[in-house]
């Protein structure tokens, strides 16, 4: 018959709780004994029942094992304390070093801006001048590179605008009508010119008597 899994919570029934305590206590004492014999381990087991009754097992002596445990914990706390103190000291040294670096960087910043130069020697001022010259050279090089990029971009835009202008100009020329001076005269134009010449020869006289045909 398969037993169900025991839930890890307090057993409410008093008799069942006492039976379970007795069984598991005996099993635990047996396991402690087996561990000490099979593995040559120093084992000390102390159990207090719900009513306050003491049950214990020790492979050598309970008090001896407890003393050994307390000594070990004391040594362990001492090691941890030393490590903690050493770490704290290292943290303080690191913090002081970082504070010095920050102060040095702040002083260098002020000097590069032209402040706090009273305590500078000639060598320090020359070093500052070299740093500024180097910075200016780098800034100018970067500025010139950006200008070159912008100029190249403007050249490309100019080329595109010239192409677009040429295209629009050609389109405009193709859409204009043919000039009259270039148009070839037709037969009707020639006949009209002949009639104009004939009429000009027939009308003689003043403008008001143009309707009468008078001979001299």
UniProtKB/TrEMBL annotation:
Keywords: Coiled coil, DNA-binding, Nucleus, Transcription, Transcription regulation. GO terms for molecular function: DNA-binding transcription factor activity, RNA polymerase II-specific; protein dimerization activity; RNA polymerase II cis-regulatory region sequence-specific DNA binding. It is found in: Nucleus. Residues 1-61 form the MADS-box domain. Pfam families: K-box, SRF-TF. GO terms for cellular component: nucleus. CDD domains: MADS_MEF2_like. Signal peptide: none annotated. This is Agamous-like MADS-box protein AGL19. Gene3D superfamilies: Transcription factor, MADS-box. Its main location: nucleus. PANTHER family: SERUM RESPONSE FACTOR HOMOLOG (PTHR48019). The gene is LOC110784350. The keyword DNA-binding applies. Residues 88-171 form a coiled coil. It comes from the Eukaryota. Residues 88-178 form the K-box domain. GO terms for biological process: flower development; plant organ development; positive regulation of transcription by RNA polymerase II; regulation of transcription by RNA polymerase II.
């Amino acid at each position: 018959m398969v037993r169900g899994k025991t839930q890890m919570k307090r057993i409410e029934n008093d008799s069942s709780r006492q039976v379970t305590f007795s069984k598991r206590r005996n099993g635990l004492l047996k396991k402690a004994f087996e561990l000490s014999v099979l593995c040559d381990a120093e084992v000390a087991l102390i159990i207090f029942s719900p009513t306050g009754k003491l049950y214990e097992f020790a492979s050598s002596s309970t008090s001896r094992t407890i003393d050994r445990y307390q000594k070990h914990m004391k040594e362990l706390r001492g090691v941890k304390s030393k490590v903690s103190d050493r770490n704290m000291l290292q943290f303080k040294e690191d913090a002081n070093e970082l504070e010095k670096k920050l102060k040095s960087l702040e002083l260098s910043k002020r000097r590069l801006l032209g402040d706090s130069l009273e305590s500078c020697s000639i060598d320090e001022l020359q070093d500052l001048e070299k740093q500024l010259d180097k910075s200016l050279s780098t800034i100018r090089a970067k500025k010139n590179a950006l200008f070159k990029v912008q100029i190249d971009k403007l050249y490309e835009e100019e080329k595109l605008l010239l192409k677009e202008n040429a295209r629009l100009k050609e389109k405009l020329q193709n859409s204009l009508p043919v000039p009259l001076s270039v148009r070839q005269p037709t037969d009707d134009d020639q006949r009209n010119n002949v009639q104009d010449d004939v009429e000009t020869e027939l009308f003689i006289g003043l403008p008001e008597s143009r309707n009468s045909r008078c001979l001299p």
